[in-house]
Amino acid sequence: MNHLLHIDGLRLRYPGVGFRRRMPEVLKGVSLHIEAGETLGLVGESGSGKTTVGRAVLGLARATGGTITFDGQDITHLPAGRRRGDAREIQVVFQDPYTSLTPALQVRGILTEPLIAQGIARADAERRVSSLLDRVGLPKDSADRFAREFSGGQRQRIAIARALALEPRLIVCDEPVSALDLTTQSRVLDLLIELQRNTGVAYLFITHDLAVVRHISHRVAVMYQGEIVETGPAATVTTHPQNDYTKRLLLAAPTADPEAQAERRAARQALLRRTRTPATT
Amino acid sequence: MSQQLGALGPDQTAVAPTRRKWRVTRALLRNPMAVGSVVTLAVMTLLCLLAPLITGHDSMYSSVDHVNAPIGTEGWLLGGDAQGRDMWSRLLASISVSLTAALIGTGVAVIIGVVFGLVAGYVGRTIDSIASWVFDLVLALPSLLMLIVLLPVTRGSYQLTMMLLGIMLSPGVYRLVRNMVIGIRRELYIDAAKVAGLSTWRILTRHVFFVVRGPIVIQAAFIATICINVQAGLAFLGVGANTPSFGSMISLAFTNLYGEPIQLVWPTLGLVALTGALILFANAYRDALAGTTTAARRRSRRALADVVKRADEAAPTTEKPTEKALLTVRDLRIAYPRSDGSLNEVVHEVSLTVDSGEIVGLVGESGSGKTQTAFAMLGLLPHEAVVSAKELSLGGRPLLGLTPTELRELRGPDLAYIPQEPMSNLDPSFTVGSQLVEPLRRTMPRAQAKQRVLELLARVGIPDPPRTFHSYPHQISGGMAQRVLIAGAVATQPKVLIADEPTTALDVTVQAEILDLLRELQHELRMGVLLVTHNFGVVADLCDRVVVMRDGRDVETGEVRQIFHHPAHEYTRSLIDSILDEETVRTDAPASRAKEGVR
């Protein structure tokens, strides 16, 4: 039971607008765990609640039931002040590199800010900037430029460097490569894997892209309508799925090979006929 | 810790946004309006500070010998007023009072407005409701009347009056700040700052305030003019203590209008110069923030007109209809005018063809010009775009240089379009059905058109067509919306369908269904389809031929199998190689275990 992160029966309902208005439950009892140094791929379509799981782990969304345990400590309802102290342990890389970096600061400021907030002396924080930039493969002179001067892939590298600054043990990656071009995407994924090998950080990797999940995950959990429908080693889940929804999801993703894709299309249509799922869009 | 943060704060803000600050400052220095207004304000301030040295008398000193003394009297630079006081000295004192009034009023309004605006906007909920209610109440009070009614409280002191005015004017600042903060509260970088462990105070002062400070400066300049005018107005009415002021000077000069009309000129000039400088500065600052000046805008408009004229002259003579392909593009170029009038070409000599019954994929990374190319065929490029081509024709008819009417006749029966974002392409204020019926009304009566739309909705796989027909766009899902748009696109049985990333915004399961639908419809209607996409899976699923674009050029064109299995161009190869392999699953053990093994 010594998981790095352990989520047990997590329920979440966003507060409604106005008096007494109940919103539908977004998470209906989600349970999962992540070991130290491991990548758990969390796959699902829009509205499945996968991003909400990440936000709950980060303390950005308030759970209405269940527990989140990090390194043996219950962090489900940690007050904001206490959370700040623990912040260095759990960090985040968001999907959109264009809105996740503040326009107010140069890269140097973006990278030192979390360190200074944790009480590290300014000079020490400054000294770490160049090694952080080096680790994510950005030139040293990037420190004196603003985020808006960089391309999408470079911005995502800055975001990764910011997450690494506090030497966290878990990074929540919320669709970190979805907004990137194909070539940039694979380079950023390789960077994430390399960093994991070097630092032993664990990833909660949230994505809708099965190819990406296969590439980076040790284990995969599939979410559908606020519940985990299947979980297991990446190889098993992505090649021999048990759950019907997982099967449909896998067959729906087009493969980049005309012949193989024709086969997959036929298989998907056969599955749809068999399970008689109405065309729900 | 917070103390430490406080100590570090100003130092960092001084270092960090230098470049941006310099950009704005440079833009201001280039703008004569800004320089002029700042110089005016600076000179006026300087005169006030030097007043004891450059005036001969106190502003309240009255000399019976100098009643209505003419300009240039020894020691009375601008002469004396009706009560024998030094006009020059009173003018400087009035400027000083006006500036003080502006500082106090604006300071109070901005401090109250910004503090409550930041907190209410950021925290929201109850605090927001209460603060907004209170500020609305203040806004509803008649401020001038309140100032007069509260005279017994202020005892006529203009400083206290201006403080009250500042409170009355604070709702404007509050509303501005609050609304902007609500706009950026959900930004990811705010979330990232929270996760990084920054305190709320720090997030507000560094990240949130940065965005709102520009508009606050502009608003503050306007508030300053209001303060100056209200102070002068009250003094003109004779309300408040007997301090020298533009208002009281004008009032006194009024009584003397027929005798010494020149006395009216000095205070009026002072008032106009002061408020005018403030307003012009606000305008210049707004332009500097936006990165444009009125003059620059005018310049670029002129340059554009030239460019368009030149392009029109250079436009190719439309060639004879050719019978080769349904849609033919030869050497298409698209350029945009730069601000200095030169042309920036973004698409260079792109050629492609689409035959009927064929699906052609137009592939490339972001910025490769694929959407620009597609939009050029549809005539949807912004009108400053300069488009030229050796040939751009549909079924032998040239598409370039068409009038809007001709283009409209072509779109629909011949050329249809499916956009990337289905939701933003449906008008939220009309039902789905009415939006689909409208284009058909050109060719058939309403009842028949409705019948046809219901058939189409059923055809594109919508489970309950009548219900969807009467729904508004927000009541249907993204996948449904895309089906609706497809129904609309094929309603007129077009010859060519241009689809711009039709499934990018959709989930994979929905994407698969939409791709199936497109394939079926294409087969049924024998359409030529140009599919713009960056997804090679979609290309493999649907396309017969592929055109690969990079940096505005078509680098390779070929059959889909050839592109995937034997790409000729190096760039295509690198693209295909960077597709994440389907077979390889990550096999290395989690890092911690591997590490333990090493140690």
TrEMBL record, chain A:
Query: Which residues, by range, are in coiled-coil regions?
Result: none
Any one Gene Ontology molecular-function term assigned to this protein's record: ATP binding
Kindly list the biological process annotations in GO that this record carries: transmembrane transport
Q: Any keyword rRNA-binding? A: no
Q: For the ABC transporter domain, which residue ranges apply?
A: 12-250
Protein origin, superkingdom: Bacteria
Record carries keyword ATP-binding: yes
Concerning its family, UniProt says: Belongs to the ABC transporter superfamily.
Cross-referenced InterPro entries: AAA+_ATPase, ABC_transp_ATP-bind, ABC_transporter-like_ATP-bd, ABC_transporter-like_CS, P-loop_NTPase
Q: Which UniProt keywords apply?
A: ATP-binding, Nucleotide-binding, Transport
Protein name per UniProt: ABC transporter ATP-binding protein
From TrEMBL, chain B:
How would you describe this protein's topology in the membrane?
Multi-pass membrane protein; Peripheral membrane protein
Q: Which GO terms describe its molecular function?
A: ATP binding; ATP hydrolysis activity
Which parts of the sequence belong to the ABC transporter domain? 329-576
Q: Which organism is it from?
A: Streptomyces hainanensis
Give the lineage: Bacteria, Bacillati, Actinomycetota, Actinomycetes, Kitasatosporales
User: Where does the chain cross the membrane?
Assistant: 28-54, 95-123, 130-151, 157-177, 216-241, 261-282
Renumbered to this chain, the signal peptide range is none
Tell me where it resides: Cell membrane; Membrane
Per the record, the GO terms for biological process are:
transmembrane transport
Pfam families, alphabetized: ABC_tran (PF00005), BPD_transp_1 (PF00528), OppC_N (PF12911)
List, alphabetically, the PROSITE patterns matched. ABC_TM1 (PS50928), ABC_TRANSPORTER_1 (PS00211), ABC_TRANSPORTER_2 (PS50893)
Q: What is this protein called?
A: Dipeptide/oligopeptide/nickel ABC transporter permease/ATP-binding protein
Q: What is its main location?
A: membrane
| Family, as annotated | Belongs to the ABC transporter superfamily.
A GO CC term? plasma membrane
